[in-house]
């Protein structure tokens, strides 16, 4: 391997004594998002490499607070240490809109700026930043080469106070923007949303916060986020990622609702946010024993269409959510009054594996509801738990409703008699190479199976109802025997046909493909058996 660091290949202890550059325990390394994507590395000076670290050049003077006439540098006190140049670069922030604009923050309390790629530098430190106030993060504006936001960590100075500063004129003037942040937390990172101007995110030593008005007011974004130090935040493909100290990496999926939020929406009686495109995926494809609860696992994003909505206050009556296809036909409908499913299934494991069914909320506040992109579950005499279980997240039941086709849909939220409608796009799994005709044939057969299965279940319940009545009259009568054979004991019986059709429904929906000839033949055979059983039932009845 080749050492591409800007210091000689020597031991750390030797470097401290022989190398003229200083480093911190968190040494900043970053890339320019523009042009040649230069790589920058910080000591007390700034290094740049244009060939992935094979060669480096120094493009700045000493950017720390070092003074040429500093004294007592062999055994300095805190103030003297700063003058002696014990500070180093702690954050490097190239502008996303101007290649030659680079912001630098040091751990001894300075903000430095170059607008010409390092040829000239200017100290633009705001007067509010104290000595040794560590510049933990600088976020250049994604919309202006002259703007930036700085997070200043004051806890080393003995002050557990928040400090975020912003400038729009190359650092000539700065404004403190901390309203709404807790007064006993210090800020470690600030980031600007790259798509919506004025949308900011901040991480402190305890939580995550958001501002919709360019820092005018902050509010909590914690949700289920743990109480922990937030070292870094990153907006990545429409999600917000948070790097913590000791609690792993967390993700807030889909920032679209935050980007859409306005004061008008916040004060409206209700609002349904524009949902992101939904990928047509199956929730879990694990076909082996699920990992035990003690296994440390990350959490996947929800599978399906994610609907975010806000209610200014609790709804008067039920809240409904209706999904329609491009022809206006109802595909699925949910209500806050929906009761939990009571399905006959043999649970042979701890109830914590079952999970909770998603529920539509009618309470005031911000809510998220996930639709799994499936039609309603078909009727069946009994259901089976799949092996693809996740502790606390749930264990799927089979048979389930078939997946909807890729295409355009609409979703309507109804609250207090008023409707709010948004378009929804369902996209095919990009890993799947199958034509629309195959998926249409798959859905058509799944619907046919569902219809026949529903008729079988209905007939079985009718037969079983009469059977229970006859048993009370005469358990050994010929009619009782005939009904028993029709319902359960015959070869075939209504119960056996229902079981096969439920299994066939699972098989047809197992993969994104047209039905096989064997599946079509099996359906034809058992549909025929049901028709014969139905004739016998009509005679008995």
Summed over residues and divided by their number, the pLDDT gives a mean of: 91
The coarse overall form would be: elongated
CATH architecture of the largest domain: 7 Propeller
Oligomer: single chain
| Adjacency order of strands in the biggest sheet | 21-29-28-23-24
Strand coverage percent: 25-35%
Radius of gyration: 32 Å
Give the full name of the CATH homologous superfamily of the largest domain. Answer: YVTN repeat-like/Quinoprotein amine dehydrogenase
Largest sheet: 5 strands, mixed
Poorly predicted spans: 1-19
What is the helix content?
10-25%
**Helix/strand/pairing category:** alpha+beta
Tally of separate domains? 3
Q: How would you concisely characterize the structure shown here?
A:
The chain is of the alpha+beta class and 541 residues long. The protein is built from 8 helices and 29 strands. It is elongated, with a radius of gyration of 32 Å.
């Amino acid at each position: 391997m080749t050492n591409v660091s800007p210091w000689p290949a020597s031991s750390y202890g030797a470097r401290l004594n022989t190398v003229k550059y200083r480093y911190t325990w968190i040494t900043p390394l970053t890339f320019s998002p523009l042009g040649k994507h230069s790589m920058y590395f910080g000591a007390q000076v700034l290094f740049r490499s244009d060939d992935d670290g094979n060669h480096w050049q120094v493009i700045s003077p000493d950017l720390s607070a070092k003074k040429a006439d500093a004294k007592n540098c062999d055994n300095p006190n805190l103030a003297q240490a700063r003058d002696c140049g014990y500070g180093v670069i702690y954050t490097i922030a190239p502008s996303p809109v101007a290649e030659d604009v680079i912001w630098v923050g040091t751990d001894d309390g300075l903000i430095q700026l170059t607008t010409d790629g390092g040829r000239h530098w200017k100290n633009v430190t705001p007067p509010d930043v104290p000595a040794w106030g560590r510049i933990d993060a600088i976020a250049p504006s994604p919309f202006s080469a002259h703007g930036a936001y700085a997070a200043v960590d004051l806890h080393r100075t003995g002050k557990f106070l928040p400090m975020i500063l912003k400038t729009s004129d190359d650092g000539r003037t700065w404004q403190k923007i901390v309203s709404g942040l807790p007064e006993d937390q210090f800020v470690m990172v600030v980031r600007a949303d790259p798509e919506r101007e004025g949308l900011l995110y901040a991480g402190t030593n305890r939580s995550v916060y958001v501002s919709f008005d360019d820092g005018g007011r902050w509010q909590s974004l914690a949700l289920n986020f743990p109480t922990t130090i937030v070292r870094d935040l990153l907006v990545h493909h429409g999600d917000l990622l948070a790097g913590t100290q000791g609690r792993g990496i967390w993700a807030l999926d889909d920032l679209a609702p935050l980007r859409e939020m306005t004061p008008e929406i916040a004060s409206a009686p209700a609002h349904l946010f524009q949902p992101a495109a939904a990928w047509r995926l199956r929730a879990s494809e694990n076909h082996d024993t699920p990992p035990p609860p003690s296994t440390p696992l990350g959490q996947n994003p929800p599978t399906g269409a994610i609907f975010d909505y806000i209610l200014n206050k609790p709804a008067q009556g039920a809240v409904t959510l209706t999904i329609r296809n491009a022809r206006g036909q109802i595909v699925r409908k949910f209500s806050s009054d929906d009761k939990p499913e009571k399905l006959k299934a043999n649970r042979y494991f701890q109830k914590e594996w079952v999970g909770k069914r998603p529920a539509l909320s009618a309470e005031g506040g911000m809510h998220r509801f996930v639709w799994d992109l499936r039609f309603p579950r078909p009727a069946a005499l009994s259901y089976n738990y799949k092996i693809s279980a996740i502790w606390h997240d749930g264990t799927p039941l089979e048979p389930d409703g078939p997946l909807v086709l890729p295409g355009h849909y609409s979703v309507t939220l109804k609250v207090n008699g008023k409707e709010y409608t948004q378009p929804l796009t369902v996209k095919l799994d990009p890993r799947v190479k199958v034509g629309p005709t195959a998926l249409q044939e798959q859905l058509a057969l799944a619907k046919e199976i569902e219809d026949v299965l529903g008729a079988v279940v209905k007939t079985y319940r009718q037969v079983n109802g009469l059977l229970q009545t006859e048993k009370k009259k005469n358990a050994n009568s010929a009619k009782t025997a005939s009904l028993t054979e029709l319902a359960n004991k015959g070869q075939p019986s209504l119960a056996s046909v229902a079981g096969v059709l439920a299994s066939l429904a699972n098989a047809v929906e197992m993969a994104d493909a047209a039905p096989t000839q064997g599946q079509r033949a099996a359906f034809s055979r058992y549909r025929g058996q049901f028709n014969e059983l139905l004739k016998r039932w009509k005679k008995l009845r």
